[in-house]
Amino acid sequence: MIMAKTMRSIFFMILFLGLCMSYMVQTAAGEDSQRVIKPSDQSIQESIFRKHFKEYVCRHLRKTGPDVVVSRFKVKGNRPVPAGSVSFKLSQKGQEGRIRLQGFVKSIAEVNVNGQVKNEVLLSGYIDVFESVVCTSRNLKRGEVIERDDVYLAKRNGSRLSPKVLTYMDKAEGLRAKHNIRADTCLKEWMLEKAPVVDRGDIITIFAESGDLRVTVPGRVLMKGCPGDLIKVQNLMSKQDIYAKVINNSSVRVAF
User: Fold this and answer.
1) pTM of the prediction?
2) Enclosing domain of residue 84
3) Labelling 9: which of 25, 168, 214, 221 has CA 20 to 30 A away?
4) Are residue 221 and residue 232 in the same domain, yes or no?
């Protein structure tokens, strides 16, 4: 009798577990059926997000496509959207008004279908921006004055450059090297200095102007100087030492 009751209990337990398992399978199947992509849905390829991501960066940096390189690009949250006309709006949410578009960059792509927001996708990638910088075309020795043929413009990765790098040729011409500089070096401000145009002992013209009145006297330079520098000179007529501003290699001006 006890054995019979035990067998019936086991039978009902197995039957109950079987019903539970059947219900769970049906429920799971129902959930999966809700995830099935509708025939009318459309998927957006990663290459499209990459294209809009790069265009967003180029637009804000005012750069052309060849100057911007995107690597390690990733897309998160991309899912099918309803059929229709798709447009994108990219932004950098949570940046407190700052737009950071070099190095590792994150952006939110708002996916609109027929003018309605249907999804938000997280885009990220590493941005390298190439800039035109001034480089040396030959080895320069300390003290050499740079001329037009001594430098050229080249594209370099801006994320790896010093903020002091020169980007215009005329910023280097006429200056002299503070130390030896090898060919193909990107020039920085601290590498160069003004080249003196007058040296101690040079004979120059000292002049002063006030309206239509102009006075000139011969003078001797008592210290070297560059254009714009205030240096000490001697008035050869009065033998007095005065300070004057260097104009060029043959003249200085004093305040009248």
Assistant:
1) 0.60
2) 46-128
3) 25
4) yes
